[in-house]
Amino acid sequence: MKKMIFVLVFVFMVGVFSNSYAETRGGVILQDTAYGALTGAIIGTALLVFQEDPGDHLEYITYGAAAGAIVGAIYGVYEATALVEIDKNKNVKIAMPTIINEKKGRELTSSVNILKVHY
């Protein structure tokens, strides 16, 4: 019974908060994570049909929700990150990672900055 109440509260929260945060990058990621978790929980519940004793395998719901949340978060980050951006002056910016080559002594190293955070 506690799990059912948790699922109903979670579905209610997804419905209430999904529209209010959808305008920002964080909102897109949060919304996709929530939808992924909900979809994963539904798929985990559907997999219970194939078990002889579904009551013994209720963890499929939580595994599905966790996997769905991870996939949803990854998709949300992908969706919120634009590789091509057009600003107000119609300038096109293409976000390609820059390969940085450094020579330290006799050793040549290459690196790519994947994440850049501005404070």
Automatic annotation (TrEMBL):
Keyword line: Membrane, Transmembrane, Transmembrane helix
Sequence intervals crossing the membrane: 32-50, 57-78
Taxonomic superkingdom: Bacteria
Protein name: Glycine zipper family protein
